[in-house]
Amino acid sequence: MNEWRAGVAFVRGINMYGNLRITKEEMIAACKQIENECIRILGSVKTDNILFEKRGIHYAAVGSKLEKVLTSHFGRKIFVTVRSAGTLAMLLHALPGR
After folding, report:
1. Rounded to 5 degrees, what are φ and ψ at 27?
2. What CATH number is attached to the domain comprising 57?
3. d(CA 40, CA 52)
4. What is the pLDDT of residue 13?
């Protein structure tokens, strides 16, 4: 099977300005509902940045699965943007003054 690759899912609109309040523990529990042989939820930074590993599926598929489970949890559409750890490292390296 494919090797595990790390990524970050950025969840939009959670815990901002008193909107859609959820604890870090509740968020991780909700996200872990998508875990299977291809997706592992590793944790989060703050509440809305979900760290994960995936294999054999595209990063966008992880985002779609998270959107579905979080939309069900909150009862309204939740948007998720996903990036690979490699893409994030490249972006940070490209910052001026680095």
Report:
1. -65, -45
2. 3.30.70.1280
3. 6
4. 83
Rounded-to-integer distance, Cα 11 and Cα 18, Å: 15
Measured CA to CA, the distance from residue 51 to residue 97 in angstroms comes to 27
Please say whether the beta carbons of 50 and 65 come within 8 A.
Answer: no
Task: Name the residue range of residue 44's domain.
Answer: 5-93
Mean pLDDT lowest for which of 14-23, 38-47, 73-82?
14-23
DSSP state of 32: G
Residue 98 placed within a domain: no
| Under 8 Å between Cβ of 21 and 15 | yes
Total domains in the chain come to 1
Q: What's the pLDDT band for 1 if we cut at 50, 70, 90? A: low
Residue 61 has pLDDT above 90, yes or no: yes
**Domain contains 41:** yes
